[in-house]
Amino acid sequence: MTNETTDALVSVGWVVDRLDEFRRDDPSFRLLEVDIDPSNYDDGHVPGATKVDWKTELQDSTTFDVPTKGDFEALLGGHGIDEDTTVVLYGDMMNWFAAYAYWLLTYYGHDDVRLLNGGRESWLGRDVPVTDEVPQFTDRSYDAAEPDASIRADQPDVLDAIPKDAALIDVRTPEEYRGEILAPPGWNEGVQRGGHIPGAVNIPWSQVVDDEGRFRSEAELRTIYEGDGIDGTEEVITYCRIGERSALTWFVLHELLGYDAVRNYYGSWVEWGNTVGAPIEKGQRAEIRQQ
Asked: Do 135 and 184 fall within a single domain?
């Protein structure tokens, strides 16, 4: 298991030791739960945590893009967060949308943001406090930085990357990658064509976590990516269906392994698969990239 307490990753024990600080109406520490199903929060959560709805609060429903700077500032300020707050994120499904929220906070320049290793399931699986109490915090003024374009890829960036032999990582399931299905079972497909971006290698997000949802050791993680010729010396673009699973892989590469040039393709397959003329491939995974 990877070191559970780093600049980007904290353990259940680390949070337990600071529960009093997370409960206080003080902007120094704040816990945010971001689930696929926001109602999970109501069934019990980490004391001091407040809920963020990824569908209504972490995207702009009109533009299908990230929240505007103003909306993002209002969101964080409404949770009692200011620019100096240590924000710890966690969620269900092994932190899919918590990792997306982490990427979004980083995109808007928040300096001190952490991810709880193992997420909601890891917390509930331990003998630690759980509550259904919803804390109330004083609103704060939040001033976000301008978006950091270096960690985001859009469709033109991906088109430019294909002939340059950049490392494109498709983190979806092999069945999605091969074009056999358009979305994980039970999910709205939202896309017309199956397959993958030409030249992309398939390294499913699930390979980076153990059975309990905690990240694998640094050595194991490096082996996973170096097995496909990805060692951090090249530009890397990650993508999935809607950008949340790929945000988890972005977190692993950029934050845990320290790869510098890693971008998350925000539009991911929903955009690519619905774009007239965007090239696709189907079938088996791409050959291992040669350095």
From this structure: no
Q: What is the pLDDT of residues 60-81, one digit of tens each?
A: 989 999 999 999 999 999 999 9
The pTM for the full model equals: 0.95
Find out whether 222 and 248 touch, Cβ atoms under 8 Å.
no
- 55 Ramachandran zone, left/alpha/beta (phi>0; psi -120 to 50): alpha
Query: With contact defined as beta carbons under 8 Å apart, do 219 and 152 qualify?
Result: no
Catalytic residues, which ones? Answer: 240
**DSSP label at residue 42:** G
Strand, coil or helix: 170: strand
3-state secondary structure of 167: strand
- Using the 8-state DSSP alphabet, how is residue 209 labeled? B
Copy the structure tokens of residue 202.
Answer: 């398939």
Question: What's the rounded Cα separation, in Å, for the pair 66 and 15?
Answer: 28
Rounded to a whole number of angstroms, the distance between the first and last alpha carbons of the chain is 29
- The H or E element that residue 114 is part of is strand 113-116
For residues 61 and 76, membership in a common domain is answered with yes
Nearest to 258 by CA among 1, 6, 5: 6
Tell whether 136 and 159 lie within a shared domain: no
Q: Is 109 left (phi over 0), alpha (psi -120 to 50) or beta?
A: left
Print the domain residue range for 26. Answer: 9-147
